[in-house]
Each structure stands twice: as C-alpha cells, then as structure tokens.
C-alpha cells in the first residue's frame, strides 16, 4: 500500500490527504484515481481519503512503425518529443507544457495552439486499452467500444485506468518553427487577428494585457519550418532544452503583484516589437517550462486558473464582459492567454468547442475563489463552458448546463464503475462519481 501524503494539483490548491501508491505495484484499496505528472491545476488527480496511483513510471515505448507509436500511458510528451523530433515527427496536439503524460493528455482531451487544424488529443489516438473497475481490459477505438473511446477523452480518469495507447504522429521537415508576431492595440483587434492571421497559420496564441485600458495584446503564430536557415543549432533533445531556472521553494507570500505584473507587461510590449523569426519548438510551444516550479511563485496558498471557451457569436463583446468582471473584482490576473478553437471533435466531457478560449491565472484568496465561481456562472450564461483540467471551484449545478452530454456520460460511468472505485476530489466536488 502507498504512504499517506498531502497532495494537490499544479495550482497547489486544494491540498488534500491521500494515500500515494504506484501504478503496477500498489493495488489501492477502496477508491483510487490515477495521476500522471500532476499538471492539471485543480483537484482531479488526487483521491481524497483514498489512493492516488502514480503512473509516471509506466513510461515504456512499446513499438514504433512509420508514423505510429505504441506507448504506455505514463510516457511524457517531453520523452516522446525528444525521440520524435530528430526522426522527423511530432505529436500533433501538445498542450502548453511538455511535462504531461500521454494518459493525462487523453484523460483531459487536451488542446494545443493548432486546434483549428489538428483538433484535440483524441484525434491522434488510434486506440487505447482501458482497465476497468471490473478487472477487464477493453481496447477502445473509433470502431470498437467507441462510446468508451469518446467518454474517456475528457473523462478525467473516472472510467478506469488508461494503459497503453497507439498514437499517430505528424511528419515535420525540420524541428524548428517559423514564427510571426502581430501587435494589437486593443482586444477587438487581437480577436480580429485570431480570426484572420490565426486561422491562416498552423499554430496561434494570443496574450492579453489586462492591466491596460482597451486590453492590448500580441498574437504569435507559427508553422513548422521547411528548411533550417542555418542560424539555429539543432539539438537531438531540443524540445526539452531550456535554461534550468527554478523557483526552489514557495515563498511565504505571493510574488505576483502590480510590480511583477509590470515586468510581465514590459516583456509583452517588447515582444510586440518582434516580427518574424525562426524558433526552437520548446520556446514556441512550452514557454512556461523555461522556469521550473513557477507555480510556487504564487506563494503558500497557490493559484487558480480560470479557463473557459465562449462561442463565436458576439465573441468580442462577451470576452470584454468577462474581462470587465475581473477588473471590477480588483483581482489581478497574471498570465492571460487567448486562443481560437475550431469545431469540436470530442464528445461527452471533452472541453473544446468552436469559439474563443481564454485562460487567466490568479493567486488563491477569498476574492479570487469568489471571482472564479462568478466567472463560471457568467461563462455558462454566455453559452460557454469551463475546462475541468483547470477548475478547482465549480459546483455541480454550474457544471451540468455546460456539458449537454453529462447525463449520458454519467450513465456510462454507472455501467462501467457501479461501485464508484474511480473517484477524485474533483469528482466528489462535482458529484460525478
Ligand atoms: C503550464 C501548463 C500549461 C498547460 N497548457 C494546456 C494547454 O495548452 N491545453 C490543455 O488542454 N491543457 C493544458 N494544461 C493542462 C494539462 O495539459 C492537463 O491537465 C493534462 O491532463 C496534465 O497531464 P498530467 O500527465 O500531468 O495529468 P495529471 O494532472 O496527473 O492528471 C490529469 C487527469 O488525468 C487522469 N489520468 C492521468 N493518467 C491517467 C491514466 N493513465 N489513466 C486514467 N486517467 C489518467 C487523472 O486521473 C486526472 O483526472 C496545461 C497545464 C500547465 C501546468
């Protein structure tokens, strides 16, 4: 059996008591949940009062044929990309950090900067093995056990343990990105750029300066380079090569304040001056990985990330409403990212749907908790939904109207796991266990 521990997600809030075991070694009595690299922000990768099973060591690459790899679900994107890029391949959908496992990517059906081209993570999964509460192993694909295939993509580990999976990789000519940056004087211009330049390029991501009137911002777009201009060295482990700056411990106070915000905004306005260039993939896809343990900078109480998607219709007006609610609350959001999603390719609890997705980080305190709850209600009223991988505060009545297939998903959960073996602090909070 595992040992007792206080554990949290990447946001370091909430912190819960759990027994920590290791997948494949500890069985986990009572309720269990699996955990990859713990990069979901809230409480979905911790089983309060039960066992949290660490899956990081189930990370074998099993087969590689052409553009298809078969791997255990504990393999990280960092490990896979370091092997794939020198061979002329990439993982089609990567979230904003490479420190995630394949199992975690599937369980949240993660999205990247190219949703309008590549869809979400499940779109490159050919099949996976689901180990159920009843002790069966079911191979799930679009053709076989297809409801389970879709219900696990966003199912947050609540339908069983995802073991090995087959993943389709995408070919690339060079492990380098050709990038272009566009400055926008206000939010409307930024969202206009997302709709035009963002859709023309393979990848795009916007950053909003919420401290300035009108919300100016910057849009960065990229494509895989077809040739190396010779100015950048290509290292075999390139996606992971970074400076090893680290926040060594959580300071006793939150260092995110108007001063650090001004530093960040200075950085944003400097990058506004950049035009085109060639970038290494790590810097383009995973800029935050450049500072290890950056989540500690938010101090002892941790951080909340609010991420929602709002429909295209009146998108600018509705995004402005959200930002105004934040300004009125007096809470300071630190990193403000906006992206555009293409049409939804998932089902059940999968997050992406066509529209604009916005993600904002707040230090945890009473006001930011209340604000994130309020923003969840507002997002629902505006026809949007909140991303469960980031959420730590929503209530069951807020969740239900956001995900129209929730009841159907609960039916699958009851059928696959009648005794509720797979449960997390999140599933209890949202009453979906
Ligand atoms: C800096 C940063 C940037 C991010 N950017 C993005 C982004 O751009 N897009 C995006 O979509 N997400 C993003 N995320 C969120 C992150 O991609 C997801 O939360 C992802 O699920 C984390 O993977 P993990 O391996 O750390 O899983 P964990 O956080 O450990 O677990 C996440 C969920 O997966 C389940 N799970 C994990 N492994 C298994 C398994 N083998 N079987 C069954 N269930 C399993 C867990 O039970 C849990 O419910 C970001 C996170 C960070 C910290």
Widest sheet: strand ordering:
16-12-14-13-19-20-18-21
Uncertain residue ranges: 235-242
Please give the domain count.
Answer: 2
Q: Based on CA inertia axes, which overall geometry fits?
A: globular
Q: Tell me the β content.
A: 15-25%
- Rounded to the nearest angstrom, the radius of gyration is 21 Å
Distance between the termini: 23 Å
Main sheet attributes: strand count, strand direction, barrel closure:
8 strands, antiparallel
Task: Quote the CATH topology of the largest domain.
Answer: Alpha-Beta Plaits
CATH architecture identity of the largest domain: 2-Layer Sandwich
Number of strands: 21
Bound molecules: flavin-adenine dinucleotide
Average pLDDT score? 92
* Fraction of helical residues: 25-40%
CATH class of the largest domain: Alpha Beta
Continuous helix count: 13
Structural class: alpha+beta
Describe the structure.
This protein has about 425 residues and is an alpha+beta fold. The protein has 2 domains: about 65-145 and about 160-170, Uridine Diphospho-n-acetylenolpyruvylglucosamine Reductase, domain 3, CATH 3.30.465.10; about 175-400, 2-Layer Sandwich (Alpha-Beta Plaits), CATH 3.30.70.2520. The protein is about 25% helix and about 25% strand. It contains 13 helices and 21 strands. It has an 8-stranded antiparallel sheet with strand order 16-12-14-13-19-20-18-21, sandwiched between helices. The protein has a 5-stranded antiparallel sheet with strand order 5-6-10-8-9. A 4-stranded mixed sheet has the order 1-2-4-3, with no helix packed on it. Strand 13 (about 205-210) and strand 14 (about 215-225) form a beta hairpin. Helix 9 (about 315-330) runs antiparallel to helix 10. The longest helix is centred in the C-terminal third of the chain and has 16 residues, at about 365-380. The model is unreliable at about 235-240 (pLDDT under 50). Flavin-adenine dinucleotide binds near residues 73, 156 and 424.
């Amino acid at each position: 059996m595992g040992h007792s521990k206080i554990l949290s997600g990447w946001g370091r809030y909430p912190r819960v008591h759990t027994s920590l075991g290791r997948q494949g070694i500890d069985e986990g009595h009572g309720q269990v949940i699996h955990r990859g690299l713990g990069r979901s922000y809230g409480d979905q990768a911790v089983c309060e009062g039960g066992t949290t099973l660490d899956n990081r060591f189930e990370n074998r690459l099993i087969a590689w044929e052409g553009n298809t790899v078969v791997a255990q679900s504990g393999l990280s994107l960092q490990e896979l990309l370091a092997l794939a890029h020198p061979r002329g391949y990439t993982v089609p959908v990567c979230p904003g950090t490479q420190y995630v496992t394949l199992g975690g990517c599937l369980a949240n059906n993660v999205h990247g900067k190219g949703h309008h081209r590549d869809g979400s993570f499940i779109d490159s999964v050919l099949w996976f093995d689901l180990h159920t509460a009843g002790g069966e192993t079911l191979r799930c694909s679009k053709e076989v056990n297809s409801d389970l295939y879709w219900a696990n993509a966003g199912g947050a580990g609540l339908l069983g343990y995802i073991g090995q999976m087959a993943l389709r990789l995408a070919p690339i000519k060079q492990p380098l990105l050709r990038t272009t940056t566009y400055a926008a004087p206000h939010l409307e211009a930024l969202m206009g750029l997302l709709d035009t330049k963002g859709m023309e390029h393979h990848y795009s991501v916007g950053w909003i300066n919420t401290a300035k009137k009108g919300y100016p911002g910057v849009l960065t777009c990229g494509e895989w380079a077809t040739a190396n201009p010779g100015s950048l060295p290509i290292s075999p482990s390139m996606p992971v090569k970074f400076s090893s700056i680290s926040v060594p411990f959580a300071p006793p106070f939150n260092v995110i304040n108007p001063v650090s915000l001004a530093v960040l905004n200075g950085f944003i306005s400097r990058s506004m001056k950049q035009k085109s260039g060639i970038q290494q993939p790590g810097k383009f896809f995973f800029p935050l990985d450049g500072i290890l343990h950056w989540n500690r900078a938010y101090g002892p109480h941790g951080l909340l990330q609010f991420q929602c998607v709002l429909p295209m219709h009146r998108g600018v007006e509705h995004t402005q409403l959200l930002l105004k609610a934040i300004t009125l609350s007096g809470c300071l959001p630190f990193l403000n990212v906006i992206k555009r999603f293409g049409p939804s390719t998932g089902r059940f609890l999968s997050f992406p749907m066509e529209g604009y997705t916005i993600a904002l980080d707040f230090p945890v305190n009473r006001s930011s908790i209340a604000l994130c709850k309020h923003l969840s209600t507002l997002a629902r009223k505006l026809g949007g939904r909140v991303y469960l991988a980031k959420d730590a505060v929503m209530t069951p009545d807020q969740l239900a109207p956001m995900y129209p297939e929730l009841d159907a998903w609960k039916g699958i959960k009851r059928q696959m796991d009648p005794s509720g073996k797979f449960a997390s602090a999140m599933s209890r909070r949202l009453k979906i266990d």
